[in-house]
Specification:
Helix content is about 40%, strand content about 5%. It is mainly alpha-helical and about 100 residues long.
Length: about 100
């Protein structure tokens, strides 16, 4: 389930998979009081969506293009590299703790 105008959710989703239920005229928020009626009324959406689970669904795994989750993989790689660099920097600083050599 995703709001029809939810570009936050769409930017974090795979483009090759369609949403089971795009909520019409809705944005990213689940606050039904959001201005201009852009919030998702969760109770109403669930009343519509839950019966879908009783219907048969196609078996098998969706084919995934190579580029489909490239942004998520790139973000994970950058985060992993940043954490490793921070750990190395902390270890280097801890190794040099205290006064330096005197001559």
């Amino acid at each position: 389930m995703i709001g029809q105008w939810d570009w936050f959710g769409a930017s974090n989703s795979r483009p090759d998979l369609e949403a089971d239920h795009p909520v019409p005229r809705a944005w990213h928020t689940t606050n039904p009081e959001f201005p201009l009626g852009l919030g998702i009324d969760v109770k109403a959406a669930l009343r519509h969506v839950l019966p879908m689970f009783d219907q048969p669904r196609p078996a098998g795994k969706a084919a995934m293009p190579l580029f489909a989750d490239l942004s998520q993989r790139a973000t994970a790689a950058l985060a992993t590299a940043a954490l490793a660099a921070a750990a190395l920097a902390a270890a280097a600083l801890n190794g040099r703790a205290g006064p330096g050599p005197t001559s």
